[in-house]
Amino acid sequence: MASEKLQTINRAVLIVKAKEPLRQWLHNLPDGIDMTLDEINRDCTTYLVPEYGTQDELSRIIKDSFKKIFELELESWWLKTSDWPDTSDYDLFRKWFDVEVHSLVLDLAPGHVKLEDF
Q: How far apart are CA 103 and CA 55, in angstroms?
């Protein structure tokens, strides 16, 4: 079977997709970035998070991680933090981003996953 040689990674995946408020913010920056949501979301960032057993556990994982994710997403577009919104506001994060969750990660690359500090 094809799946016999695949390595399963004991993590879940969060895929973060921008919503309209992020697009508007980008457009209103000093050097305005004029892109559609489709263009912004063409290559979304994916985050590995711990496996979870219940919806409550998943909600806790997202709430524990949202500030870091919010900052990484904004930083990928604009480095001047004084132009950022309040990244500690969970409700604002949910207004700016959709989060897709996928619980199964299979590694198609040969060899073992190598973790490196960056």
A: 12
The vertex-89 CA angle with 92 and 44, nearest 5°, equals 55
In the DSSP assignment, the letter for residue 6 is P
| List of long-range contacts for 81-84, beta carbons under 8 Å, 24+ apart | 83/29, 83/30
pLDDT digits 0-9 by tens, 14-54: 999 999 999 999 999 999 999 999 999 999 999 999 999 99
Q: What pTM was estimated for this model as a whole?
A: 0.88
b/e 38-75 (16+ beta carbons within 10 angstroms → b): eebbeebeebebeebeeeeebeebbeebbeebbeebbe
The two tokens of residue 107 are: 């590694």
